[in-house]
Structure formats: structure tokens, C-alpha cells
Amino acid sequence: FGFQLGDGANNVTNEDNGFGGWFHYNGSFFDSASSNEPSTLIGGGDFAFVLDCCPDYSVVRTWTAEDCTGNIAQWTQVISWEGNNVINDTPILPETPEVVKEEKGSLAIVSVFPNPSNVSTQVKVISSYDDTISLDVMDATGRTVAKVYSGRVQANEVYNFTINTAAFNNGLYRVRLLSTTEVKTEQLQIIK
To answer: Do the Cβ atoms of 146 and 136 come closer than 8 Å?
Structure first.
């Protein structure tokens, strides 16, 4: 067999990008349904295709970073392709950096550890005010699969809760913390 790939390789329109190949074969053909002697086979063939492997398109990538005080910075990169040539791979930056100070509420999920989990996970939560909260786990469809806690909490005290993840199936879950005024969620992955 032979094989070509690249400009003019398709043998149809030699100036286009493509691929083509040809092959020869020989051998014996055995028919299990008959007792005849095997037949000798000899032959060949070819194929050819035009490739449009690099159509025009753009890729937009955006990265967001948030520090522990809630400051957010964002970076966007646009990569444009025209045929086989890269047109622009320079990041597009805002004229002034976009820094957003996110308002912090009175409720927070401090940590979900270990994450991913396979047996159990510790969840730490805190509230800035005396409040009533509930902590539960939801599956990817939004169905509550575990109710971890429902009750009162004291202001600025860290509460530790253990979630038994051994009974959960592999997948992504959301740990949801609700108070009388806020909702906070964190992702939890189960891998066994």
C-alpha cells in the first residue's frame, strides 16, 4: 500500500490539501461451506479525498481569578484561524483591568475536604450572624440526596459537618448551605 497526505496528495485536484492511498492484495480465499480448493485472490484499489482540515474559526478563552477577599480579575484571549494560518493569537486586554469587589454575605462554606471523596467529607461553614441554616447535598439533577444539618448557628463560629459519601454513586454533587437570607453552594466529586 502507499499513502500520501498534504498539498496535492489527493491526486484529484493536485493544488488542494488532501490525502490519497492505493493498495494491492493477494491471497487465498477459503470457503468453509464447500470442500473446494481455496481460490487465489489478487487485486488493488485506491482512494482520494480533498481535506478542508483548517476551516475559518475563532477560539475565545476567558480566565477568572478570585482572591480570598473577593477581588476578581479576568483575562480573555481570542485565537482566530483562517485556513492554515493563525491570524491573531494575542490576548485582548481591557483598557483598564476589570477588578470587581464582590459583596460578601453573612454565610460561607469555608471548606469541603477531601474533595474528591470516596468515604466521607468534612464541610466547614460559618455565619456572621446568629441564624437558622440547613446543609444538604444535591445530585446533578438538583434532587436532594442527603440532609446533613438543619438548625441554629451562632455568629462567627465555625461548624464542622461530616457527610458520609460511601453510599453515593460516582459523580458530581453540590453541597448547598441555606440561611434565612442566602444560599451558598460548592461542588463535591465522588470517585470510588
So the answer is: yes
124 and 133 Cβ atoms separated by less than 8 Å: no
| Alpha carbons 168 and 189: distance in angstroms, whole number | 10
C-alpha cell at 5: 497526505
Report the amino acid identity of residue 39: S
Tens of pLDDT, residue by residue over 31-49, are 777 777 788 878 777 767 6
From CA 109, how far away is CA 173, in angstroms rounded? 15
- Residue 145 grid cell: 440526596
Q: Which residues, 6 or more positions from 51, have their beta carbon under 8 angstroms from its beta carbon? A: 10, 16, 17, 18, 19
Rounded to the nearest 10°, the torsion over CA 61, 67, 71, 77 is -10
- Four-point Cα dihedral 7, 11, 12, 14, nearest 10: 40
Is 158:126 a contact under the CB 8 Å cutoff?
yes
Global pTM exceeds 0.85: no
